[in-house]
Amino acid sequence: MSQDVERPGQVEEATARALLRRLAVEQAECRVPSIVAAIVRDGRTAWFGSRGRVGGAAPTPATQYRLGSITKPLVAAVVMRMRDEGLLDLLDPVGKYLPDVPAGELTIAQLLSHTGGLTAEPPTVWWERTAGVAVDDLLARLGPGDVKHRPGRRFHYSNVGFALLGELVARLRGVSWLRAVRAEILEPLGMDATTARPRSPHATGYAVHPYADVLLPEPEHDAAAMAPAGQLWSTAEDLARWAAFVAGDTGGVLSPDTVAEMREPATVDDGDAWTGGFGLGLQLTRHAGRRLAGHGGSMPGFLSMVWADPADRVGVLFMANTTSGVSRALPTDLLGILDEYEPRLPAEWRPVAADPDLLAMTGVWHWGPAPYVLRLLPERGLSLEPAGGGGRASRFVARQDGTWVGLDGYYAGETLRLAADHLDLNTFIFTRTPYDPDAPVPGGVAGWES
Fold first, then answer.
1. Is residue 360 part of a domain?
2. Is 413 exposed, middle or buried (CB count within 10 Å of its CB: 0-12, 13-18, 19+)?
3. CA neighbor of 368 nearest in space, from 441, 298, 278
4. Buried-most residue among 17, 231, 253, 326 (CB within 10 A)?
5. Structural domain of 37
6. 270: which DSSP letter?
7. Tens of pLDDT, residues 327-372
């Protein structure tokens, strides 16, 4: 096999060449021992590329790399499964299930979103480079001083928080966090090559000397209690399946609505820029009009990243065996190349059958003097938005009792009631003419004056 491994798959030859060139530039200029990358589109791997050597040969889609913190969203997915089963509530304090945790007042949602204020690293020696301690030992070392910020006040990334979530999974499931992740996430998604320790073929983790082209092997060990924060190893094939999952191809592991909830922004992590943040176990960013969800990973000798765009059903990933050096721009640059060379065509418009009663409700309605437009969406959905765009726009779906519930925007979760001459949206009355005097509210106001 040649060193320039290229499996274009669904992308065209020119696209594959441009993607591979970007990867080759990264590997050469950043002095990366080896790197693999892939594009996922519509639930399938559309392109795979690699550079460098693992064991004297080019890495393949089946070569393992350490995922690092991409382990976290896999643990989070099990937590969300337990929530959906009714075993826990995200607003529950973690102490309800781990009574021996000093930070027991922190909620499960806060741990998932890194907003609990818990210390970033455990009160042990450098956990990434030393053998891990047992869970009981870790819990005994934690104290009130390890809560660094008022819970809910701000984003503060916490590896310790996911150690606690891993133990939460273990206690509620009655098996280790790893067995739960394997049985509930990895096996159903077909991620059979994702393991806790490396298996052949796998890359060796290296640190690259800053002033010479020489390598230093990095340690690899069982992180024990801290393992839920960054233990797993995986392949490009498996990580592509996870990218498809985050993009919405959930394979029955979670409902699409639950994965969408995980992708919702819970906190911002880049200050005034407001381009990055976290949901529930998922890292978020906005780039070039895309809203991406996924997670990065970093452990001694390894870097990784996976992003997914559910709106476009596309994902991107890379894994490399270097402690530092890969640019943050690599995955989004690869998506940019895909957009440039093979922009997705819009879905073909087709007419749909319409309920005559709903069709009669469409058109212009007024909130006071402001015009809004009610539109009929496919699958009997409705949208209500200001006639001029912007403002309080929401989509609605029907309930069995004849009312409608908001899906997003200002009116998310609120109730809409339809009447022949007005709309009642959580007490706000919309009428066909501005301030219709016959409407229930405001009704009876003085007439318009010149």
1. yes
2. exposed
3. 441
4. 231
5. 1-349
6. S
7. 999 999 999 999 999 999 988 999 988 999 999 999 999 999 999 9
